[in-house]
Fold:
Amino acid sequence: MERQPSPRAQTLGVLLPLLALFLLMPPFVTLFTADGSVAGVPLIVVYLFGIWGLLLVATWLLARVLMPDPDGAEPTEDSILPPEPPAPPPAA
Amino acid sequence: MLSANLVLFTALAYVAFLFGVAFLGDLRARQGRPGWLVSPVIYTLSISIYCTSWTFYGAVGSAARSGLEFVTIYVGPMLVFVGWWVFLRKMVRIGQLHRITSVADMISSRYGKSASLAALVTLIAVAASTPYIALQLKALTSTFRVIGSSGPEALRGIPSGPPSTQLAFWIAAGMALFTILFGTRNIDANERHHGVVAAIAVEAVVKLAALLTVGLLVVYGIAGGPADIFARMPEGMLHASDAFGARWITLTFLAGAAVICLPRQFQVTVVEIGDERHLRTAAWLFPTYLLLICIFILPIAIAGLNFLPAGANPDMFVLTLPMWAGQDAIALFAFLGGFSSATSMVIVACIALSTMVSNHLVLPVALRLRWFSLEASGQMRRFLLTTRRVSICVILLLAFLYFRLSASTNALASIGLVAFAGAAQLLPSLVGGLYWRHATANGARAGLVAGALLWAYTLFLPSFEGDLFLSARDITEGLWGESLLRPYALFGLGGMDPLVHSIFWSLSVNTLLFVAVSLLREPRPLERLQGTLFVDVFRHRGADTSRFVRRSAAAFDLNVLAQRLIGVEQARRFFARTGQGGNLEPNRPIADDALITELERELAGNVGAATARAMVSQVVTGETISLGELVKIADESQRMRDYSRRLEAQSRQLVDSARELQEANERLRQLDGQKDEFLSQVSHEVRTPMTSIRSFSEILLETPELAREDARRFLRIIHVESLRLTRLLDGILDLSVLERGGADWTLKPTDPRQVLASALAVCEGLAAAASVRLVWRDAGQPARVLADADRLSQVFINLVSNAIKYNIHATFLVEDRIEPWVRVTSGVSDGGYEVLVEDNGPGIRPEERQKVFLKFSRGWSHTQSGTQGAGLGLAISWQIMHRLGGTLELLDTPGPGATFRVTLPCTT
Structure:
């Protein structure tokens, strides 16, 4: 039985990529094209890769909420053989 | 410096190692112990074939030429995967539920399993992928020559001498061999290739490690850390101020579309996924991989621009920098990394494309050819496998030809973008189909054709720079000199970057036509059905369409078809699983809709939904889709209606049961009344003789001085009445046994004449005593009936003795002394033995005739006698005849006397 994640989590699941889009596309991203550097690395580079890293972490956290492990059990390994037909009952 | 031979040897050893991994993977898979093969990490690593040699080499080149632009190629996929909950999840779920085998299969399946649409998508996919594969060939040949050459010229990264077509050819042949060996070993029911997935996962690790090693070498080996390397950055290299324009957005969008629509990406993301939950891991792990790949691109580019000779090929920096730094081992490692990135892409792309070509181009055409028939089981699979192998060779040949034809000055990146743009034409139909129920196949077709044509005209053909279809003049001045048709400034929209220009026209026209043509007409029933199933995939628990499609087919035909397509073993398993036995005779049961749909789904796993449907429809007759059902599935209140209908049916059942109970009650009451009547009749019958017995016993007791003769007379009366009572009780018992059918008689073939003779012999005495003449006329034919002799005799005796008894009294009263007679006539008539008993007595009054066979009736009550029977004789005789399968009737004759007729069917 599939447990649906909470509506709030689902909304976040939709909002996160939209937020990412906003942060990484013009015009917002052009804010960081100014001359500047962080520890010698240009600002824009730090910004791009920094946001990238934060998005990763956010996705990781959100994924655990959106699709949790079923009650702590390990996800079963996918069987790639078709199910065997039931074995005949042992002869009486 | 490395020698070419060493490089060659290393490459071959590496390939052998990959063969080993693939072989192991397949082995484990076949043994049913997939283990680590189906972990989410492997899944994610397989998705990383997105990073081809374009990434490994071309990204640095792009960074060196255009600054930050290269980031878009990885931001796009990152956004798609961060938004996995929105789109990828839906695509994966549909893919699993409907057993989708390729991107063409998904699109065609969505639009009513249209075979023509599948073919169109396949053609576009092949056209778009060919440049990409050629790109890999180019990278492989260039790098091999660069690393194997020596001298300062090598560091320029531009291979000296003519392009080595021979080398490219052998590389292409080698990849064909690997793909055929591991990609077309068998036709898996789900189109999964575990060995190949294992090998490309290893390659993914190798290329990441290689790139990271080169990056670390550059940042910490050659330079003095991140600050140092960026301090050496040439001015304006990043192009930061104008990097974030239309091209930035377009490229990001294009890359995102590519990670969805490219056949190889679709293959690893949707088709090869084992468990939907793996997507949850890939959502963050794949962007992590991309981040790690990208993190050293800029430093390497900067280092190359700084340290390598001016004019060096920036696409080769990843290779030439370690060579310049004297790090041959790292250079070799980098070469292997690039080798991995190229080969893994080609292998998976060839598998995906060959699957589409065999399922959607070759098979449908072959099915239509009348001379093509595969009767033996397993032949179909061999045919499919052969088709796929040939397709792989053809695709690689086409890529090789593109490699030969395309200008060698094209940067790796730009060729790749042409391919991306081609694949992006699939996006409107794919995404639109998953969210818009009203999308139709016609709309998809219109959009795809228009988009593909525009892409070809504005991007693909011009990339040949005049060698294919479009001459150089056409490219600069437009087709037929028409300036509005300039490939890079279509309809006057000039001054744009060619890529952006092409994307703008192709995708906007694509989407526009898709929407407009879809709205022109209502979707066909199957389109609407598939549309709802796809769009609402999270609402419906299954892909079961049997509720909506009514089809019928002979189970035998289905079995033959299944054996042809998926082999005897799998067919047997399928039919066993669905509860239909194995060996089915022809013209045997009609298979129901659920079985047909299930078989179609099973076949779809092998040959794609469109082809499966085409094949099943060959044996299916009479297919209708209930439109009423279709409309209802979108309706939420349907559930309510179902529920209320069930309640209605239940209440109707209750009403019926109540009525049945009432009727049963009625019958019981009737029976009760009959029982009361019977009891009152019996007690009346019993009372009469009992009264006589009692009164005469009293007289005897109270008059001790009665004369002997009187006493004797009274005792005799008592005796007679006792006998009568006993007879009555016996008769009642007999009758009740007869009525209940509890008598156990033995029916034997009997001669009725004998029975009649013996019965008449018994009655002789009675007749003589009553002075009644008894006559027997027999027709003389021999006959046999199935009867119980004693019971039959009982009937005859009863009838004859009745006739005798009630005849005497009549003639007694009549003055003119007619001689009383009883005539018995017997013979065969109409296949039955017939006995008539006539008398010339007073007969039975008309109003009594109806009741003469009922219990206690007194048909002769007007005759009045002391020797009355209990009134049960005729009832008993009637029951006996009824039980023997014959009849006893009172004939409706005029005149004095009664005629009874007995009939029995004769046996031969």
